[in-house]
Amino acid sequence: MMFKTPKESTKNRIIEAAKKLFADQGYQKATVVDISKQAGLSEAALYEYFQGKEDLLLTIPDLWVSDLISDLERQLFGIKGAVNKLRKYLWWYFRRVEETPLDAKIVYLFLKTNANFMATDVYSNVKLLYSCLLDIFEEGVKSGEMRPDLNPRIARNIFIGTMEHIITLWLLRDQAYSLFDNLDETFDILVRAFVK
Amino acid sequence: MMFKTPKESTKNRIIEAAKKLFADQGYQKATVVDISKQAGLSEAALYEYFQGKEDLLLTIPDLWVSDLISDLERQLFGIKGAVNKLRKYLWWYFRRVEETPLDAKIVYLFLKTNANFMATDVYSNVKLLYSCLLDIFEEGVKSGEMRPDLNPRIARNIFIGTMEHIITLWLLRDQAYSLFDNLDETFDILVRAFVK
DNA sequence: GCGCTTTTCTAAATATCATTAGGATATGGC
DNA sequence: GCCATATCCTAATGATATTTAGAAAAGCGC
User: How far apart are alpha carbons A65 and B130 in whole angstroms?
Assistant: First the structure.
């Protein structure tokens, strides 16, 4: 990645350091001193780039989810059929999680903790990421590919719940296996619940 | 509830205070001073009862989950058929969550954050709570009530994932509605994925 | 009631860490 | 070279978790 200004580059160094330390030791145990040191500057300098520790934490998911959002549409582009889109969504998302496990860990393990997470920008982006699933289910019902009596909102809850659970387990178990183990089988079972 | 010793009663007062403050303001923002004050003693006295703030936090889910465990077997006793047991499990669990939302909030929003959650007693109790579901799915497959090719472990992931997602949403949205809204419909969709 | 022990508590000290203040140093335009 | 600005550092400050030292209170055998 290239950075226009040296400021951008420093900011990025801080983010990378924070990502590593937060994911490794958790939000509380990772100190601002540690993060600054890892990034190669003093604590005070860090406050030129971020309002505080919490701001730094929230910046990480914000970037990650924004990046996902901008990629999502391109990934689903040209795919025909709700089930095919669903499948693509799942495989794409899991791949992204496997590629950037530190970000995923912060999102899944440390974000909801935050008292006012619901008020953050991250949350509205997550909603965007998930609202796409709602569209897919609505399309599936409308086109007749899925059961006419399927409540898209409930279907989405089941789908997201399953995804998040699989990811959380994987993160808590230190990514000791592949997220794609049994994924075909899981997907087939889920689809069975949605289609006629 | 009755307490044998005054020590038990004080300990309980501290736990109740902590529960309220943790659930309200989050782990970090709830200070030890606040908790002690709410419980009617000085900070130092609290350390006679708990090793520290983190110990206090972990005690809350520990009690809650232990209590659930001891209730679970009684609840499922006498129920015939895997699907019926599954249904009972879901309704029972959601009822318990609605009855004790503060505990649920701490378990679902603050526990996984804890870096070494996997090493705690709570975690092994949670596993116990969930292993029961595995038994139910295995029974369902064996008895022919569910598909012979159903992988019980995957079925459990889907079931738990859905449950946890519904609960987490409800907690993040300040319990503004009933957990039982749409529960019948959700359950039916899930069952469709598992049975022939 | 009276010593004695144990439990329960407090006020004050200590330690850790996020955050800020104020000043130093580097960088780029002239 | 010199000013302006951006970037950084050392050294406080303040909040808060935890410990210490020991006082008050409660139980108890006599």
Answer: 31
Which residues are A195's β-sheet partners?
A146
Structural contact between residues A113 and B26, judged by C-beta atoms closer than 8 angstroms? yes
The reply to whether A27 touches chain B by the CB within 8 Å rule is: yes
Distance in angstroms between the alpha carbons of the first and the last residue of chain B: 47
Give residue A7's pLDDT.
67
Q: What angle do CA B142, B143, B148 make, to 5 degrees?
A: 50
Contact A150 B189 (CB under 8 A): yes
The answer, as to whether pTM is greater than 0.85, is: yes
Element counts in chain A: helices (H) and strands (E): 9, 0
- Which residues make beta-bridge pairs with B146? B195
On whether the CB atoms of residues B172 and A118 are closer than 8 A, the answer is yes
Mean pLDDT for B48-57 is 94
Residue B80, Cβ density class (10 Å: 0-12 exposed, 13-18 middle, ≥19 buried): exposed
Backbone phi and psi for residue B142, each to the nearest 5 degrees, phi listed first: -65, -40
Give the number of other CB atoms < 10 A from CB of residue A150. 20
Closest alpha carbon to A94 in A83, A82, A108: A108
d(CA A179, CA A166): 8
Q: Report which residue type is found at A11.
A: K
For residue B22, give the H/E element and its range: helix B6-25
Can you tell me which residue has the tokens 């889907």? B158
User: What percent of the residues of chain B are helix, what percent strand, and what percent coil, each to the nearest 5?
Assistant: 75, 0, 25
What amino acid is encoded at A107 in this protein?
A: V
Nearest to A186 by CA among A161, A168, A149: A161
B29 touches strand C (CB under 7 A): no
Does residue B129 register a pLDDT over 50?
yes
Q: In strand D, which positions have an atom below 7 A from any protein CB?
A: 6-11, 16-21, 27
CB contact under 8 A, B172 and A117: yes
